[in-house]
């Protein structure tokens, strides 16, 4: 999250329980692409769950996880056969090193400004080898998913309960608060986040400007096309 809620080690330890990889559409979608690539960069890798799964599935090449939250990387470092890097795409300088890069969990939406998007795409393009690909996902604004981010939609993991309070959609942005509470804690924990929602034409303009080309684009993890009701815009781009 932009305010690094998961720099909190206690919340970071809950992340995988809240987002189990086996039932995660994005993990199941991207894992075959990772397994087919010799060298892989996971941007916003979080707890490292996806790269852990790749190693467990027999990946023998280079795997690198990048994340700005130390709490998340503390969880990721449970495996030491992956390179874990603290930072983001504005702080790294890889060149021609990866066959595949990935950004899961709608992390792409924390890139809020045009300059942040341009910096990220430029860094990805540099990091990829010619012909390398980058997969990422963003919520489709036409589906208006933020309208379901309400305190009535509570998730529970053990004694911890969590819910969102979503704000209005304003000029392509939604700001919301997430609450975590447990009887084992002295007080609830909170995070506040802002996400950017881009439609397909706007997204395509940034991809083209970065010198990348869209290879594939889907509206859901079953590879169905993007429509007005699709919850996702899942995009695979290639460095020519």
Summarize this entry quickly.
This protein has six helices and eleven strands.
Major β-sheet profile: 7 strands, mixed
The overall strand count is 11
> Roughly how many Å apart are the termini?
31 Å
Structural class: alpha/beta
Low-confidence stretches: 1-5
Portion in beta strands: 25-35%
Q: What is the overall number of helices?
A: 6
CATH class of the largest domain: Alpha Beta
Spell the H/E element sequence. HHEHEHEEHEEEEEHEE
The overall average pLDDT, rounded, is 92
CATH homologous superfamily title of the largest domain? Vaccinia Virus protein VP39
Strand order of the largest sheet: 3-2-1-4-5-11-10
Any idea how many domains? 2
**CATH architect. name of the largest domain:** 3-Layer(aba) Sandwich
Determine the CATH topology of the largest domain. Answer: Rossmann fold
- Percent helix: 25-40%
Radius of gyration: 17 Å
Please tell me what the overall shape is.
Answer: globular
């Amino acid at each position: 999250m932009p305010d690094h809620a998961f720099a909190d080690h206690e919340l970071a330890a809950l992340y995988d329980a809240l987002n189990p990889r086996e039932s995660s559409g994005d993990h199941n979608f991207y894992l075959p692409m990772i397994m087919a690539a010799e060298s892989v960069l996971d941007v916003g890798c979080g707890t490292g769950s996806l790269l852990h799964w790749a190693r467990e599935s027999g990946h023998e090449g280079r795997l690198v996880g990048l994340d700005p939250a130390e709490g998340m990387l503390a969880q990721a470092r449970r495996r030491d056969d992956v390179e874990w890097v603290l930072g983001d795409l504005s702080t790294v300088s890889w060149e021609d090193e990866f066959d595949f890069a990935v950004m899961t969990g709608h992390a792409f939406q924390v890139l809020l400004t045009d300059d942040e998007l341009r910096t990220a795409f430029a860094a990805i393009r540099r990091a990829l080898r010619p012909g390398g690909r980058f997969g990422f996902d963003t919520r489709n604004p036409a589906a208006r998913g933020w309208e379901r981010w309400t305190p009535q939609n509570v998730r529970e993991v053990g004694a911890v309960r969590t819910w969102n309070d979503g704000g209005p959609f304003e000029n392509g942005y939604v700001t919301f608060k997430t609450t975590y509470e447990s009887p084992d804690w002295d007080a609830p924990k909170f995070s506040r986040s802002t996400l950017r929602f881009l439609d397909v034409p706007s997204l395509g303009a940034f991809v083209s400007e970065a010198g990348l080309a869209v290879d594939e684009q889907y509206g859901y993890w079953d590879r169905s096309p993007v429509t007005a009701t699709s919850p996702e815009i899942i995009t695979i781009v290639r460095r020519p």
